[in-house]
UniProtKB/TrEMBL annotation:
Its EC number is 2.1.2.11. It comes from Bacteroides reticulotermitis JCM 10512. One of its GO terms (biological process) is methylation. Binds 1 Mg(2+) ion per subunit. The gene is panB. 3-methyl-2-oxobutanoate binds at residues 8-9, 47, 77. This is 3-methyl-2-oxobutanoate hydroxymethyltransferase. The active site is at 146 (proton acceptor). It catalyses: (6R)-5,10-methylene-5,6,7,8-tetrahydrofolate + 3-methyl-2-oxobutanoate + H2O = 2-dehydropantoate + (6S)-5,6,7,8-tetrahydrofolate. Catalyzes the reversible reaction in which hydroxymethyl group from 5,10-methylenetetrahydrofolate is transferred onto alpha-ketoisovalerate to form ketopantoate.
Length: 228
């Protein structure tokens, strides 16, 4: 594994929230610190949570510095293009690497109203391309493209020189990312087209817990070999 993203999707898969918006800066730092302590060689990138960087460049810089100092992560990821480019430049000027994020941006779900595929119309697609170029020119080292047409992702990847990472963005990009709880099948109810499950931990865990409960109720656990 080359890169590990500590995503604000922890709001959904760890805290049970409907969106990524409720997760706080303190909570992201907590999750990031836990991941960094377990990593040996991979680059650790941390999502800046909603409200920690939008609209105020100095507040964004302060949030970014705090994440880096307290978590010991390697880089940060921010959602948005032209609207946040000032904050991106300000954070980069402090020597903090940034990965961009375009396409479906979950922190903007209340504006979208749905998690459907983004940038299907020409105007939104052209804006995405402009934003990608702005992020590259500003100094971002990579960009995540989420849930957009594969042909658009391929175009962005061919026109930019920095790595393009896809999630629901087709195969003609430089890398892929999935939420580990989704990829391992821990969340049985989330089944988007782009998700390939490599395990069914939901079934394994459910059966194991049921077996444990049964053993306790029938006094089979603990047995004599499992006592002191």
């Amino acid at each position: 594994m080359d890169v590990i993203l500590v995503g604000d999707s922890a709001s959904n898969v760890m805290a049970g929230n409907v969106t990524t918006l409720p997760i706080t800066l303190d909570q992201m730092i907590y999750h990031a610190k836990s991941v960094v302590r377990g990593v040996k060689r991979a680059m650790v990138v941390v999502d800046m949570p909603f409200g920690s960087y939008q609209g105020n460049e100095l507040e964004g810089l302060a949030s970014a510095i705090r994440i880096m100092k307290e978590s010991h992560a390697d880089a940060l990821k921010l959602e948005g293009g032209e609207e946040i480019i000032g904050t991106v430049k300000r954070i980069l000027s402090a020597g903090i690497p940034i990965m961009g994020h375009l396409g479906l941006m979950p922190q903007s779900i209340n504006k979208y109203g749905t998690y459907t595929v983004r940038a299907k119309d020409d105007a939104e697609a052209e804006k995405l391309i402009r934003d990608a170029r702005l992020l590259e020119e500003a100094g971002c080292f990579a960009i995540v493209l989420e849930k957009i047409p594969a042909s658009l992702s391929a175009r962005v990847a061919s026109e930019l020189t920095i790595p393009i990472i896809g999630i629901g963005a087709g195969g003609d990009v430089d890398g892929q990312v999935l939420v580990i709880q989704d990829m391992l099948g821990m969340n049985n109810g989330f089944r988007p087209r782009f998700l390939r499950r490599y395990a069914d931990l939901h079934t394994i865990m459910t059966e194991a817990i049921s077996h444990y409960v049964s053993d306790v109720k029938t006094c089979d656990f603990p047995n004599e070999k499992e006592q002191y």
